[in-house]
Amino acid sequence: MALTNRKFTLAARPVGMPKESDFKLVESPVPSPGAGEMIVKALYLSVDPYMRGRMNDAKSYAAPVEIGGVMCGGVVGQVIESNNPKFKVGDIVQSEFGWQEYAVSDGKGVRKIDPSIAPISTSIGILGMPGLTAYFGLLEICHPQAGETVVISGAAGAVGMAVGQIAKIKGCRVIGIAGTDEKVKYLVDELGFDGAFNYKTAKNYVEELKKLCPQGIDVYFDNVGGAVTDAVIPLLNVKARLSICGQISQYNIEKPEMGPRWLWALIVKQARVEGFLVFQFFDKFGPAVAEMAGWIKEGKLKYREDILDGFENMPRAFIGMLQGDNTGKRLVKAADPSK
After folding, report:
1. Strand-pair partners of 5
2. N or C: which end of the chain has fewer CB within 10 A?
3. DSSP structure string for 134-161
4. Where are the domains of the chain?
5. 135-145 pLDDT tens trace
């Protein structure tokens, strides 16, 4: 039976916050796989902040999505037809298949997923790009030591909540910054953070941080940038380390903000700031996933998934994630693997 593929393409480059009209739902026949190829049916699709940068007409760390091109994104799916000897029908696989229900792949950049380790959705969450971003961004960039104070912006997102828990595993004191009282409560009561505050209701970020970090800040994991990061700088301890993972507060602004010029503070504090991309650690992914899977089984690493049902909800899920209406990893469930 001929299959029809639904995919979301980029219809227009957003000005400010993306709109649903910036995407177009397109239908086309699914081609038969050629020699060495397979067809993968999407089961869960990821939406992540980095996708906003790929919508701009400027190259950042990767080429922009072209107008009319399929939106980028991680997918976990099931092989339904295969001419590739490395993959058989029924295999669960993960790769950057983009916002589409079916993908034809030659197997390059595709990894098999073992459903017995954890639910397959975790392969694009805690045991996928977000979890690995947290793992390497904290451990390889910041090298946290027991007893140090770690502060995380965007702490209730998929990356932030993993960073905080890994820091706790390493014996650190952990402070989170999030956007609702419910998220703050979740970080402290459920994930074991030592403190957190709501940046949307706090009147003075510096004073909030002073109360929560009386011994100063040794490690700052930045997902947000902007005024939140500006407030962290005066409280850095000597030899502090800053991991720059994201700048989500800046992604949708139409004019650059003029912020404090604080590079001088790094001289006084002898601090180090380093940005990173998770794919630079690709050769270490296997051991990292194994260690995090062990932490999950031991109950040391918890995760939360915020799942919308239905492929047609991809734009809404993405825009909502940028607006902070999710707690944990935002996913879209496209199909049931049992059907």
Report:
1. 28
2. N
3. HHHHHHTTT---TT-EEEEESTTBHHHH
4. 4-125+304-333, 129-279
5. 999 999 999 99
Two domains, one topology: 4-125+304-333 and 129-279: no
Segments in the chain below pLDDT 50: none
C-alpha to C-alpha distance for 284 and 305, rounded to whole angstroms: 25
CATH number of 129-279: 3.40.50.720
Q: Taking the CA of residue 297 as centre, how many other CA atoms within 13 Å lie in the half-sphere pointing to its CB?
A: 9
Q: How many Å separate Cα 303 from the centre of its chain?
A: 13
- What is the DSSP secondary-structure string of 270-327? T-EEEE--GGGGGGGHHHHHHHHHHHHHTTSS---EEEEESGGGHHHHHHHHHTT--S
**Which fold is adopted by the domain 4-125+304-333?**
Quinone Oxidoreductase; Chain A, domain 1 (3.90.180)
- What is residue 258's predicted lDDT score, i.e. its pLDDT? 79
Rounded to two decimals, the pTM is 0.89
pLDDT of residue 62: 73
In degrees, rounded to 5, the angle at the alpha carbon of residue 285 between the alpha carbons of residues 280 and 286 is 155
Q: Which amino acid, residue 261?
A: R
The 10s digit of each residue's pLDDT in 114-168 is 999 999 999 999 999 999 999 999 999 999 999 999 999 999 999 999 999 999 9
Chain mean position to CA 220: 17
Spatial contact of 212 and 235, defined as CB atoms under 8 Å apart? no
